[in-house]
Specification:
Elements (H helix, E strand, L loop, with lengths): L12 E6 L4 E7 L1 E6 L2 E6 L5 E4 L2 E8 L2 E15 L2 E11 L1
Parallel strand pairs: 1-8
Antiparallel strand pairs: 1-2, 3-4, 3-6, 5-7, 6-7, 7-8
Length: 94
């Protein structure tokens, strides 16, 4: 039997939000919405590999009914094999 969507198993995205000072977030998510340089970028499980330049704005990580928000400014976002890595020049809890 498959794990429910959003579980920490194979049905979830694995997300890391990293600033020069520390890892701001590490965990599972159902979706991520990031402020790309030229607009918002939405990512869900199964997204194609991607590298994006980040702008400044709110990064939203949704898991179940909860959404965690972070303010990011500059950096890069990478998606590979249901793993989302955000490397930002500045990242803090919003």
């Amino acid at each position: 039997m498959a794990a429910p969507a959003g579980a920490t198993g194979g049905d979830a995205l694995r997300v890391s939000v990293i600033s020069p000072e520390r890892t701001v977030y590490e965990g599972a998510a159902d979706s991520v919405v990031a402020p790309a340089w030229d607009g918002e970028l939405g990512i869900m499980r199964g997204h194609a590999p991607l590298m994006a330049l980040l702008g400044e704005g709110q990064l939203r990580i949704r898991r179940g009914g909860a959404t965690e928000r972070f303010h990011v400014a500059g950096g890069f976002l990478q998606v590979i094999d249901n793993r989302v890595t955000v490397l930002s020049e500045r990242a803090e809890v919003a």
